[in-house]
Write a sequence for this structure.
Protein backbone atom coordinates (compact mmCIF):
# COMPACT_ATOMS: atom_id res chain seq x y z
CA UNK A 1 0.00 0.00 0.00
CA UNK A 2 1.24 3.41 -0.95
CA UNK A 3 0.51 6.09 1.69
CA UNK A 4 0.39 8.79 -0.98
CA UNK A 5 -2.27 6.91 -2.92
CA UNK A 6 -4.39 6.47 0.22
CA UNK A 7 -4.12 10.19 1.01
CA UNK A 8 -5.13 11.15 -2.55
CA UNK A 9 -8.15 8.83 -2.43
CA UNK A 10 -9.33 10.11 1.02
CA UNK A 11 -8.52 13.82 0.80
CA UNK A 12 -11.93 15.02 1.97
CA UNK A 13 -11.92 12.60 4.92
CA UNK A 14 -8.47 13.74 6.04
CA UNK A 15 -9.41 17.43 5.77
CA UNK A 16 -12.60 16.75 7.76
CA UNK A 17 -10.63 14.88 10.46
CA UNK A 18 -8.03 17.68 10.74
CA UNK A 19 -10.81 20.30 10.98
CA UNK A 20 -12.62 18.37 13.74
CA UNK A 21 -9.40 17.89 15.71
CA UNK A 22 -8.53 21.60 15.33
CA UNK A 23 -11.96 22.69 16.58
CA UNK A 24 -11.74 20.25 19.52
CA UNK A 25 -8.26 21.59 20.34
CA UNK A 26 -9.44 25.21 20.29
CA UNK A 27 -12.47 24.36 22.41
CA UNK A 28 -10.38 22.55 25.04
CA UNK A 29 -7.72 25.31 25.03
CA UNK A 30 -10.31 27.85 26.19
CA UNK A 31 -11.52 25.49 28.93
CA UNK A 32 -8.05 24.98 30.50
CA UNK A 33 -7.36 26.82 33.76
CA UNK A 34 -4.70 29.50 33.55
CA UNK A 35 -2.45 30.32 36.52
CA UNK A 36 1.09 31.44 37.07
CA UNK A 37 1.83 28.48 39.37
CA UNK A 38 -0.01 25.19 39.74
CA UNK A 39 -2.41 24.80 42.65
CA UNK A 40 -0.37 22.48 44.85
CA UNK A 41 -0.60 22.11 48.62
CA UNK A 42 2.88 21.12 49.75
CA UNK A 43 3.04 19.13 52.97
CA UNK A 44 5.80 21.37 54.34
CA UNK A 45 5.85 24.10 56.96
CA UNK A 46 8.81 26.38 57.61
CA UNK A 47 9.48 28.01 60.98
CA UNK A 48 11.87 30.96 60.85
CA UNK A 49 13.15 32.12 64.24
CA UNK A 50 15.23 35.14 65.21
CA UNK A 51 16.96 35.64 68.56
CA UNK A 52 19.14 38.69 67.94
CA UNK A 53 22.94 38.33 67.78
CA UNK A 54 23.27 35.03 69.61
CA UNK A 55 26.21 32.87 68.45
CA UNK A 56 25.31 29.86 66.32
CA UNK A 57 26.42 27.22 68.86
CA UNK A 58 24.37 28.82 71.65
CA UNK A 59 21.46 29.33 69.24
CA UNK A 60 21.46 25.64 68.44
CA UNK A 61 21.35 24.61 72.10
CA UNK A 62 18.90 27.20 73.44
CA UNK A 63 16.53 27.59 70.47
CA UNK A 64 16.91 25.05 67.66
CA UNK A 65 16.84 21.89 69.76
CA UNK A 66 13.85 23.09 71.78
CA UNK A 67 11.96 23.95 68.61
CA UNK A 68 12.80 20.58 67.05
CA UNK A 69 11.60 18.72 70.14
CA UNK A 70 8.38 20.74 70.24
CA UNK A 71 7.43 20.13 66.60
CA UNK A 72 8.50 16.46 66.61
CA UNK A 73 5.65 15.75 69.04
CA UNK A 74 3.05 16.76 66.42
CA UNK A 75 1.18 13.94 64.67
CA UNK A 76 1.91 13.23 60.98
CA UNK A 77 5.41 14.79 61.05
CA UNK A 78 7.76 12.88 58.76
CA UNK A 79 11.00 14.80 59.08
CA UNK A 80 12.32 17.95 60.72
CA UNK A 81 15.40 19.62 59.27
CA UNK A 82 16.98 22.73 60.67
CA UNK A 83 19.55 25.27 59.64
CA UNK A 84 21.14 27.42 62.34
CA UNK A 85 23.31 30.48 61.93
CA UNK A 86 24.17 33.49 64.06
CA UNK A 87 20.93 34.63 65.66
CA UNK A 88 18.60 32.76 63.29
CA UNK A 89 17.31 29.28 62.74
CA UNK A 90 15.02 27.79 60.14
CA UNK A 91 13.11 24.55 60.59
CA UNK A 92 11.65 22.71 57.63
CA UNK A 93 8.91 20.33 58.77
CA UNK A 94 7.65 17.72 56.30
CA UNK A 95 4.26 16.06 56.79
CA UNK A 96 2.42 13.18 55.12
CA UNK A 97 0.78 14.13 51.82
CA UNK A 98 -2.77 13.62 53.12
CA UNK A 99 -2.31 15.98 56.11
CA UNK A 100 -4.56 19.01 56.48
CA UNK A 101 -1.93 21.74 56.20
CA UNK A 102 -4.03 24.50 57.75
CA UNK A 103 -4.48 22.39 60.87
CA UNK A 104 -0.79 21.43 60.81
CA UNK A 105 0.22 25.09 60.61
CA UNK A 106 -1.92 25.87 63.65
CA UNK A 107 -0.43 22.91 65.55
CA UNK A 108 3.13 24.05 64.77
CA UNK A 109 2.31 27.61 65.80
CA UNK A 110 0.79 26.31 69.05
CA UNK A 111 3.80 24.07 69.78
CA UNK A 112 6.21 26.99 69.38
CA UNK A 113 4.05 29.26 71.54
CA UNK A 114 3.96 26.63 74.32
CA UNK A 115 7.75 26.64 74.67
CA UNK A 116 8.18 30.36 74.06
CA UNK A 117 8.65 31.14 77.76
CA UNK A 118 11.74 28.88 77.81
CA UNK A 119 13.36 30.66 74.88
CA UNK A 120 15.65 33.71 75.07
CA UNK A 121 14.25 37.22 75.49
CA UNK A 122 13.58 38.98 72.19
CA UNK A 123 12.76 35.68 70.45
CA UNK A 124 10.59 36.14 67.35
CA UNK A 125 9.31 33.49 64.99
CA UNK A 126 7.26 33.10 61.84
CA UNK A 127 5.37 29.96 60.77
CA UNK A 128 4.38 29.62 57.12
CA UNK A 129 3.13 26.94 54.79
CA UNK A 130 5.19 26.37 51.69
CA UNK A 131 3.54 27.04 48.35
CA UNK A 132 4.79 27.54 44.79
CA UNK A 133 5.01 31.31 45.15
CA UNK A 134 7.77 30.94 47.76
CA UNK A 135 10.82 29.47 45.98
CA UNK A 136 8.77 27.92 43.14
CA UNK A 137 11.44 25.74 41.50
CA UNK A 138 12.90 24.58 44.80
CA UNK A 139 9.46 23.62 46.15
CA UNK A 140 8.37 21.77 43.03
CA UNK A 141 11.56 19.73 42.83
CA UNK A 142 11.53 18.99 46.57
CA UNK A 143 7.85 18.01 46.46
CA UNK A 144 8.45 15.72 43.50
CA UNK A 145 11.42 14.10 45.27
CA UNK A 146 9.44 13.60 48.49
CA UNK A 147 6.46 12.21 46.58
CA UNK A 148 8.63 9.66 44.77
CA UNK A 149 10.31 8.63 48.05
CA UNK A 150 6.93 8.12 49.74
CA UNK A 151 5.59 6.19 46.74
CA UNK A 152 8.54 3.78 46.88
CA UNK A 153 8.03 3.18 50.61
CA UNK A 154 4.40 2.08 50.11
Amino acid sequence: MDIGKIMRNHTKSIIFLVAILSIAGLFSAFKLPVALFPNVAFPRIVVSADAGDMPADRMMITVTRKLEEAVNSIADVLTVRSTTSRGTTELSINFHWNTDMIKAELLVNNAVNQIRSGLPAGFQFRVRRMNPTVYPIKCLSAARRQYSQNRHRD
Notes: The first strand starts at residue 44 and ends at 50.
